[in-house]
Design brief:
The protein is an alpha+beta fold. Helix content is about 30%, strand content about 15%. It is built from six helices and seven strands. It has helices at about 1-15, 100-110, 170-180, 190-205, 215-220, 230-235; strands at about 85-90, 95, 115-120, 130, 145-155, 160-165, 185-190. The chain has a four-stranded antiparallel sheet with strand order 3-6-1-7. Helix 2 (about 100-110) packs antiparallel against helix 3. The protein starts with a helix and ends in a 5-residue tail after the last helix. Its main location: mitochondrion. Keywords: Mitochondrion, Ribonucleoprotein, Ribosomal protein, Transit peptide. GO terms for molecular function: rRNA binding; structural constituent of ribosome. It is found in: Mitochondrion. One of its GO terms (biological process) is mitochondrial translation.
Length: about 240
């Protein structure tokens, strides 16, 4: 009887499982990246753009129509990262005014480590004039005076790039701040992220099992959709709005 009671008490005190934690062991850390091929330029910061483009003294600044085609559709030329590191790309069309250039320049200058990092513009200075009439004016009287200048941006355009001896986590903070303050949708990317996005889009097109895509529906006028679509929907199949 005594032996049975001792066995029961010892069974209650015995733990169900034993966890062993190694105090030391062999750990593997990948080797650091090699930045020997990167050269820091003399002016690592973003340069300042003029508010008004320079014209010859004998030329009157020309006025221009809206020309929304400059903002519609995909960007076919400046859609790759030249430095193959980090940058900001536009996810929709829009316009960049001088205040947006100044905002991006100041944010990057505040967070940039000039000993290891540098930044470059990938867009032109403001060049397209935008006219505006004074408040309270009546209809007519011709086109208004030039109010400010903008730079039209298409979907997929690279706005700026950041390079140097740094990781993506170091540049992500300032790139995200700039991307959130732009007047259109934009995102901070790296070369790996852009390659992954291209691969995913290509995979979706190759492995799509639904035959009724937007392109098929528009080309075959299913449901009489032609009367509700614009010429740009026929061109890009509802992709770039």
């Amino acid at each position: 009887m005594l032996i049975r009671s001792l066995r029961q008490t010892l069974g209650f005190l015995r733990p169900d499982c034993i966890q062993i934690t190694c105090s030391s062991g062999i750990k593997y850390f990948p080797p650091p990246k090699n930045y020997d091929n990167i050269e820091i330029p003399e002016r690592p910061r973003l340069r300042m753009f003029e508010k008004v483009p320079l014209y010859p003294p004998n030329l009157k600044p020309p006025k221009m129509q809206k020309r929304l085609r400059y903002m519609r559709g995909p960007e076919t030329l400046h859609n790759k990262l030249q430095l193959k590191q980090y940058g900001i790309i536009a996810l929709s069309g829009g316009r960049l005014a001088h205040k947006h250039f100044e905002m991006a320049r100041l944010v990057v200058a505040r967070h940039l480590d000039m000993k290891r990092m540098f930044a470059i513009w990938r867009v032109d200075p403001p060049w397209q004039p935008v006219t505006k009439k004074g408040q309270g004016q009546r209809m007519g009287g011709g086109k208004g005076a030039i109010d400010h200048y903008v730079t039209p941006i298409k979907t997929g355009r690279v706005i700026l790039e950041v390079g140097g001896k740094c990781e993506y986590a170091e540049a992500y903070k300032m790139l995200k701040i700039v991307a959130e303050r732009l007047p259109f949708k934009a995102m901070a990317v790296s070369q790996k992220i852009m390659e992954k996005m291209e691969a995913e889009e290509k995979w979706k097109e190759e492995n799509n099992q639904n035959p009724y895509t937007m392109k098929y529906i528009i080309q075959n006028n299913m449901g009489g959709c032609h009367k509700m679509l614009s010429p740009f929907d026929h061109k890009w199949h509802g992709k770039y709005l």
